[in-house]
Amino acid sequence: MKLAITVWNGRIAPLFDVAKQVLIVETEGFGSPVTELTTIELHNDSVAQKIATLAAIGVKALVCGAISREYEEALLNADIELDAYVAGDVTDILEAWQRGMMHQRRYSMPGCQRPRHRCRGRRGQGQGRGQRWNHLRDD
């Protein structure tokens, strides 16, 4: 599985819409070791070009900070799962994602209750894969 994480100065980029760097992580999924890490530059300004770049390299999930509705819908339409409104050090976020522990308040952007998980055909947290985090405490 390929996961993309927006990066800015070693942290999650605060806004996907203008993010210029994405860390591509290859792994078998939760609990599996990372098999490859690659950083790519996103030079495209249009929504379609940015999403097409991620889809072309096989990204199945994206972790980012804030995101506009236009980009969010484009990602979901491309069948890329989205974990948005995430903040923190990229290394910490990747470790939490691998353990299935990312949807805690401590990994959310200021002013947000928790990071939000979305995938095509489902709205918001609490359905699909996102449901597994509903039982976690607010550490």
List keywords for this structure.
139 residues; alpha/beta; Nucleotidyltransferase, domain 5; seven-stranded mixed sheet; 26% strand; globular; disordered C terminus
What does this protein look like?
This protein is an alpha/beta fold and 139 residues long. It has a single domain, classed as 2-Layer Sandwich (Nucleotidyltransferase, domain 5). Helix content is 21%, strand content 26%. The protein contains three helices and seven strands. Strands 1, 2, 3, 4, 5, 6 and 7 form a seven-stranded mixed β-sheet that branches. Helix 2 links the parallel strand 5 (59-63) and strand 6 (81-84). The N and C termini lie far apart (28 Å). Mean pLDDT is 83; it is low at 122-139.
Encode the helix/strand succession as letters.
EEEEHEHEHE
What is the CA-based Rg, rounded?
Answer: 14 Å
Mean pLDDT, rounded to whole units?
83
Quaternary state of this entry equals: single chain
Q: Spans with pLDDT under 50 lasting ≥5 residues?
A: 122-139
Largest sheet: 7 strands, mixed
Q: Any idea what the CATH architecture is?
A: 2-Layer Sandwich
Assigned CATH class: Alpha Beta
Kindly give the count of domains: 1
* Strand percentage: 25-35%
